[in-house]
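Researcher: Please predict.
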Amino acid sequence: MGVVSAAQPSSGAATTTVDDSARTLPQAIESVPAELARFPQAVVKTVPQEIGPVETYLEAKLPLMEALPLPDLIYGGGVLVVVVVVQAIGVRLLTGHFDKRSEGIKQRPTLWRVDLLFGGAVFMMLALHLGSIVLWSAALVYGQIIPDWERAARFAALSYTTIGSDLTLPKEWHMLGPIIAISGMFTFAWTASVLVSIVDQCNHLRRSAWDALRARRAGVKHARPPTLPTAPTPPTPLTPPPVK
């Protein structure tokens, strides 16, 4: 019974394989950002082609599909979900920061600290909405729907705020504007409810600050003046009894 010996690779071949891996790995890492940047564009180009037969069949069976094309629903709906998830993360950070700061204000209630906290919360809400507009602008630019960043940002901002834009998208993406508006209504309603809660808490903090201020003023007003030390009274001399 013969013994089959496995062929061992030579050290030169192993060295060549390691060198090739060392050269190709940095090249692959450098190409990752470019591939990620081309991903939305590839999706936008391939989605209409891939679902074209399905869309044609559904349009024949369901005339409503002509008003709601599938590329808009798939691409726009995906970006809408991303926008809402980012909004959820931002609202969670906002409420956590507000609750933490409000606990500190309760220990030392002052009016200017309450107003500063409220202004910071409003600014964070503004940043959340501007971030959502940036996400929609990136989806339009990297998807080659609107290649210009300025026009994409203007279209996204006007659609996001439900004002409406005069820019016309290609026919296969004509429902993307209303989807952007729907995402804006979602996020604006969300932040509006959070703002109502923040205003209510700030009113409670402001009342506490006013009460503390009145207490300090009342304490200063009714403070007693310091009493000066009085000189000790000299002892009265003893008079001898009268002599009879």
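Model: Residues 44 and 75 are 7 Å apart (CA to CA).
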